Amino acid sequence: MEFVNVVAAAAGCWILGAVWYGVLANPWMDAVGIKKGPDGKPEDGQNPLMYLGSFLLILIVVGMMRHVFALSGITDMAKGLLSGAGIGAFFIAPWIALNNMYGMRPVKLTMIDAGYAILGTAVTGLILTAF
Questions:
Q1: In the chain, which residues have pLDDT < 50?
Q2: Residue 16 near residue 84 (C-beta atoms within 8 A)
Q3: Distance in angstroms (rounded) separating the CA atoms of residues 40 and 110
Q4: Dihedral (C-alpha) 116, 119, 125, 127: value to the nearest 10 degrees?
Q5: Is residue 59 within 8 Å of 108, Cβ to Cβ?
């Protein structure tokens, strides 16, 4: 049953990412420097394998979060939400900021990506503890 929890949490996090980056597509593309065509979409298109790859990477993060939660005794939804948000805010977001800082990327990019990391891991923690 834990496998189902992990897949459900990964799906929830991935869907949140689709909505997050859908809403913030233009500021994100501007911050990254992606050239847009006349239709406002990336000029070179997008490879569908990116979506599969992103889900698999999220699945890895969620699997480890489930393991950490199990070892830490995090079983209720409030603790799952708070612990998930903490993982995003204190592990993932600073790493994103570090990479973007050395890559001389705009702060706007860090805010968009770190925001998703925090919300995504919070939702992940909530879903992992909901079952």
A1: none
A2: no
A3: 22
A4: -100
A5: no
